[in-house]
Amino acid sequence: MKNVRTRMGYRYAASTHLSFLFLILLALAVSPVGAINADSATIDIGSFTTYVGSNVTVPIEITNATEIAGGFVNISFNPSIVNVQAILTGDFESPEANITNTNGFVRVAASRATAVGKANAKLASIRFKGISKGITTLNITDTDLNYENGTVFIPETSDGTINVSTPPLLSIASYSAYENSNITAPVEITNASAVTGGSVKVKFNPSIVYVQDALPGDFGNVTVNINNGTGFVYMACANATAVGKEKAILSNVVFKSLSSGTTALELCNASLNDERGNVILPATSNGSLSVSAACFIATAAYGTSLPQNIEILRDFRDKVLNTNTPGRALVETYYSTSPPIANALAMNNGGLRTSVRVLLLTPLVYFASIITTLNGGLFALVIPIIASLAGLLYLYRTRKCGILAGILKSLGLGTMSIVVLTSLVFSLGWLGYTWAVCAIIAAYILPLIIPLSIAVMLFAVFRPKFKNELLPGGG
User: What local confidence, expressed as pLDDT, does residue 34 receive?
Assistant: First the structure.
């Protein structure tokens, strides 16, 4: 009987041990360690872009982070391409960091008392600054995470990258204008595909120009602060999504010219932003605005800058001459040489001003009116037509002037050739050729005009003599 009881005790003890072992296994199955195998947390660092001199914020993301109480991450990077500027708090307590930019290493550790219950959370965020153009890998070299119960494990990891490229260029071009005229100067962004907005201050000389308004570009409405007393305009704009353009206009500044002179258009405090909210520090290229006085000689001759004739000459200057390279060179030459003549006219109250108005300005006004009406496009064709007709008439009228005819023909041919050459230069300008190309072509053709004119003169002078010697009776 005793042996039976002993065997039953052994069986009871064994059964109890097996039940206890089963409970342990069941507890392990539902413990965090079991969760690691079933649905383990992972650490992920994505891929980002920034620019030389600009910052980018890179979050350290933890997936399946509901029960995560903390951990650390060691990350290596290329210190010649990026540097770590700061460690920012994520979904945990304030992180602790060890940064070594010389060797390209950063260690980030953070913890929290209880899980926030997020499926995905940020251990922390790292702010990098672009140092030079290139791509660096953000390589996770070591990491641990721990659950609330203190269990430590090594999660799966996914490395990231940062692509550092040339910063966008924020530029404003150089312009020329005349007194009391409006000029629209766009502030343009080059390499703007990732830009969603930004702000910039443009400084100018308020004694030469002032700002009337700042109009929207490619980023929607513009917030504008104009201070014409000090001489600056501040513009800021933003768009929900990137415009995706290689070149985009941040804003258009409308200037009004006041007096002659040149003012710099200086871009200051420029910053842009991308879709992630990162601040981009662009490179800048300043411009200028050169304001010229009104038509000097015409103003002095007419005594005022307001008559209709001067307006016609201004339209001719703006719509015809300033539309091509040779025309602009002619205008610049005029403005550099005419002030002394205009001063002499302004001081003369007698017949000189009347003579200039009647003999010079009146024909020029009629000519300018006709050419401007033709929209300037036929300017290069009108000149050779008029010159050719005048030359034919001139040669016809001088055909029976004997020796004098040769000299007159030579002078007429030379003058007509120079006029036609001038029209050729203007034609090339309207076709888009640069002033250098026009000058080279003129330099090749001009030397041919003088010997050709001399040849015509000699032929006209000696032809009658040879004709009398070769033909009996002078016939």
Answer: 38
d(CA 83, CA 54): 11
- Beta strands 160-165 and 47-51, pairing class: parallel
Burial class (CB in 10 A: 0-12, 13-18, 19+), 394: middle
Q: How many CA atoms lie within 13 A of 249 on its CB side?
A: 15
Per-residue pLDDT, 274: 84
DSSP code of residue 322? G
Average pLDDT by consecutive 10-residue portion of the chain (475 residues)?
Answer: 47 48 46 46 92 92 90 97 95 93 96 78 94 96 90 93 93 84 90 89 94 91 93 89 80 89 94 86 92 69 64 76 71 73 70 74 75 58 57 55 57 63 63 63 62 60 54 48
286 vs 185: CA distance, rounded Å:
12
Tell me the backbone φ, ψ of residue 78, rounded to 5 degrees: -90, 110
Q: Sketch out the chain's domains with CATH numbers.
A: 37-165 (2.60.40.680), 169-292 (2.60.40.680), 296-465 (no CATH)
d(CA 464, CA 453): 18
The gap between the terminal CA atoms of the chain, to the nearest Å, is 173
Which phi and psi (to 5°) does residue 402 adopt?
Answer: 65, -135
Q: CA-to-CA distance for 309 and 302, rounded, in angstroms?
A: 9
Check if the beta carbon of residue 162 is closer than 8 Å to that of residue 129.
Answer: no
Region of 198 please: left (phi>0), alpha (psi -120 to 50) or beta: left
Q: What is the pLDDT of residue 24?
A: 43
DSSP string, 73-105: EEEE--TTTEEEEEEEE-SSS--EEEEETTTTE
- What is the reported pLDDT for 179? 73
Residue 160, pLDDT score: 96
Between CA 252 and CA 261, with CA 256 as vertex, the angle to 5 degrees is: 115
Q: Give the distance, in angstroms, between the CA of residue 394 and the centroid of all CA atoms in the same chain.
A: 54
Residues 188 and 239: beta-carbon distance below 8 Å: no
